[in-house]
Amino acid sequence: MLLALNRHWPEYLMEAAELGAFMIAACVAAVVLFDEVSPVALLLPSPILRRLFMGCAMGGTAVAIVYSPWGKQSGAHFNPAVTLTFLLLGKIAPWDAAFYVLSQFAGGLAGVLLSAAILGNSLAAPGVDYIVTEPGPEGTLVAFVGEFTISLLLMTAVLFISNRPPLAAYTGWVVGMLLVIYVSVEAPLSGMSMNPARTFGSALPAGVWNAWWVYFTAPPLAMLAAAALYVRVHGMHGVLCAKLHHANAKRCIFLCGYEGDRTKASAS
């Protein structure tokens, strides 16, 4: 544990900062687009258009994080479900996975708390509500199915694209495009989380834990299912690394399948 912490603490802090930045962007975008007194919200009365712009904001933020210097080094998981999936696939060491998950929860919470300090009552305004993720009018079961489906598709896309060197550089763009679609289409069903740390970061300050178990179970179960299906078809050797963007000069701390990187990871 101490060896992992001593060697890889920069990556842990990067993971916390990445989800923190994502949550700050989400809070700001939600206030701008959904606060009833916001000038932008008044100009965009259509909920569909608001969700589309929200999706573009979040998809763009995710792309920026994946291709940022921090994202290139930490792998840009910023989601415990993603980290746990790569742990199952044997691409990240157990202590690294544990610290990644702790960092992601801490970063998500810190992002919302910092947003609350900056945005004040606007973050608690009706329609914004600390961007908590809750089931829509169709109920908890539909929310669970929605979260499971979008998480399954996301991890399937990540594994398929990131493990094909000619396509791997586009993994972040695919993730971003999927987020645009999910926020625009699926958000009314579940709030569109796919991320236990993202849900926790909003739920704790807001004191709203409505159907929290959906967001703590559906995403990891779906991503683990996607990994199992991928391995069944392509084998364990078909998973090269836990980075979403690998073709860069940043160190790789994972149990990496790219040529020469196992030595680099063990020495880092």
Per-chain topology:
Blueprint: H1 2-34, H2 39-43, H3 47-66, H4 69-74, H5 80-88, H6 94-119, H7 140-162, H8 165-168, H9 171-185, H10 187-190, H11 196-206, H12 212-234, H13 261-267
Helix pairs in contact: 1-3, 1-6, 3-9, 5-6, 5-12, 6-11, 7-9, 7-12, 11-12
Describe this structure in words.
The protein has one domain: Glycerol uptake facilitator protein (Up-down Bundle). The chain contains 13 helices and no strands. Helix 6 runs parallel beside helix 11, helix 7 (140-162) packs parallel to helix 12 and helix 11 (196-206) packs antiparallel against helix 12. Mean pLDDT is 94; it is low at 260-268. Helices cover 69% and strands 0% of the residues.
Entry summary:
With 268 residues, this protein is mainly α. It is built from 13 helices and no strands.
Which H/E pattern describes the elements?
HHHHHHHHHHHHH
Mean pLDDT: 94
- Termini gap: 15 Å
| Class derived from helix and strand content | mainly alpha
Instruction: Fill in the CATH topology.
Output: Glycerol uptake facilitator protein
The helix fraction, in percent, is: 55-70%
Structural shape:
globular
